[in-house]
Batch of 4 targets.
Target 1
Amino acid sequence: MVAPGQFANKIDELLGKDDKTRKILTIAVVAIIIATIAGVLIFVPMNPTDNYETGVATLQDLLSSKSERTPITPNALVVSDSSPNYAMIGTPIAMYYEEGSSEPKMCPLLVMNSNDPSYAVTRFLNLYRNPDVVTIGDVSLNSPSILFRSNQTFSQIGPKAVSLATAKGFWASSDGVIIVEMQKKKSIVGYEEAVVAVAMASYLNIPVIFTDVVD
């Protein structure tokens, strides 16, 4: 049995090899993720061709997708703890891969209770002291224990509205989005699949959108 640290080191070693090895490893990882999340994930092209037919996304659909970010680049992201969906929405915003790069772009992602923010979160924010903080969900940085304010907030009501707003706010264009149907996510299995789907969104640099029902 391989220890977690050894496994991570092995992945780093493989990623450091030639382009062919990295491509093979990427395809293998993506294929595993697709198999895992087939029941909860829908990949929807944003700019479909005339002959596009709705259905299950292929491996090629995912690997060939492209996207472009808006100029908004938060140095820290604070999301509400009122729903786990907010952290999922924030994940591909806080960490993503640009096309052609094997190094992720990252910023801190913190989950906060506005009514009773934890000491760890307030201490981090006060020590971080960076003005480019974006909040997602019903988050308020107006607590006396927090020494600065966010420069942008996405506080629409509910994960669906918030996910649509962040998709428009952080992506100038995207070949697709990952849609998670909230009814399916209510089960334990559905929730676990949704978490994996979010990892895919980070890898592909595409938004995650929550919806009540997929027609």
Target 2
Amino acid sequence: TTIIPKLLVNIQTQDQSISYTGCLSQVCFVLIFGGLESCLLAVMAYDRYVAIGHPLRYTVIMKPFLCVLLVFLSLLISTMNALLHSLMLLNLTFCTDQNILHFFCELVQVIKLACSDTFINTLLIYTVTSVFAGVPLSGIIFSYIEIVSSILKISSVQGQKKAFSTCGSHLTVVCLFYGTAFGVYMNSAVSE
């Protein structure tokens, strides 16, 4: 969703470059939306856990205020992460032209173009990525372990199917999101 506008402009103008400012804003929005999606998938897994594991207390536990708070915290955390990386990019100096000959700016690729010391930027990328991928994924895995445990306690097969169908679509989205991210990571790790 973040790169589509620039992609459409590139198709129309036949120009594959992006300015430094455009690149910086694209990196910022990619980080906001990626982090937000990761956090929201964990929040949704918790919601499914409460719905299946504690169905009678669902409305007491998942009050509208808690839902809004969890979404707001997800947005706040992902925005702070994006701003941190964007501000750290602003501190770098670049030896080359301020235009990047590609329509999509990836944080790691922009850092590789810098002339100044990028150790802190690289350290931040690995640390924050580990936290942003690890903590929500751990929450999702824990929620689904509890969900499977609750489903296995249901005596009827129809009840088990209904409980699993409640979280089947979410599990599909989680697999697509993390599977794609893992595939891209492995592909870039192998190509380097």
Target 3
Amino acid sequence: MTPNEVYNAVRQCYPDAEETSLCNLHSACSPRCKKVYMCGTGISTYPNLDFDKVKEDYVKSEGLPSCSSVDALAPSPSDRALCFTELKSWEMVNRYNPTERKRINMINRKASEYKSDIPKKLTDSIEICKNAAGGSLHGISLHLILVTDIDTTAGSEKALASNLNLLAGTAVKQTSDWRDLCNTLSNGILNGITDVTTHYWRCTDFDAKIAKL
């Protein structure tokens, strides 16, 4: 099967799941959640399947007590990759934790949660797709895309060192360092996932980057 064929099989099995943009699936800024787009306009237009809805319907149809899933599913435009996308808002962590220490503590706490949650979400999502596709995704290039709302310029050892110093009460971090820390921790999480190809993208870059897969 091709990524498009798997995608269409999932849509056929779960027709109530909507195909829409990532911007509308991002609860931190979607108008559907009575929020406003952080970027101002909702830049991404590439269609993705609402995989949270797929998961809900899968659990009901299979009589399962629970299941986890990524936020979105899409084939790449080239039909060479099946993309599982998880949305995480580091910007909201910043907004709701105004002091430096609270912000850094929350970033570390969230990263710890993501380290355990994201692999399970991916595994369960792949199983849902296998079920819809008849039992196998053999030969299909699977990609996990972690999408966030900050600049995803790679972090550094300096960011981690500053983080440790701050937690020890021996340093004051610069404004940009919290983003570097988010990026360093996010990339570290993805580096631990080796059975699929992983990516870490800013939401405003999603359409341009998926076009290259």
Target 4
Amino acid sequence: MVGPPPLTGIKVLEFAGLAPGPFAGMLLADAGASVLRIDRTASVAVDLKSKDGVDFVKSLASKADVIIDPFRPGVLEKLGLGPEVLCGLNGGVVYGRMTGFRRDGRYKDMAGHDINYLAVSGLLGLLGREGEKIQPPWNILADFAGGGATKDGRYMAVGALESPFFRALAQGLERTWEERRFDRDNWPELRELLTRTFKSRTRAEWEKVFDGTDACTTPVLEYSELETEPEREGDQRPVVTLVETPCLAVDEAKTGDPRRGQGPGVPGRGYEGFTLAPGDGAERVLSDWFGWKKGRDFDVQNGGLILKAKSKL
């Protein structure tokens, strides 16, 4: 390829979230885009629960070409920053929403991790030998995947890593483990308790317990179940199926030519700047996007950006 990267000049506003959001932002930066991330208040950034913070994000969105939303449906809507609001401020913006569970399916309002998405899509049930325990793919172990066999010889997938999700798991299992979960000496006992507890009920019974909760605990479905059980048809099976490479997708609900991506990728090594910590580079991006200067248009207070009234958007 001759010339600048294809996304040079494109402004991307990314809300900080788990791995898929930053990964998408990284790919766009590799292709030449200017990516500005809204981080959590514990690091740099913007207090999204304050009116000033919300107004500031709206200002950024009005100049962005792309917005990356990594949250569950309704999270940004509750803050007044949903797609209807931000797209209303900027009619040309591309609003990209991340998804683990389908946004129109039964699990859309539930918390989850990679192992849960694999479990209910039928993919996890394909891994392993017949009659033996399912083997999760090694590349998701960093996401702290786990699970348990049930009374009827099936499985539940567990991804309750964060404390609120673990509390929901313990509540569903009718156990009080929160104070003991970080004591390594208790882990063998907890592992045995989890094993025995999951084996005390069938998969269907556990599914009723955890359906609609934030325990990150979902059934491991066999792919055939998605095709033969009416209540599961069209629920979590992907509408878009990848064929050959991630750059070639087929929309099964359409006819004619498959929907294609932008090609096999971008030549070169992508983004080669310094590794950035939260907040690094923000002043430069605000200067590039808006022509703002620190002290004249904004200040930094308690790690957050404070807009001055005279700032021109």
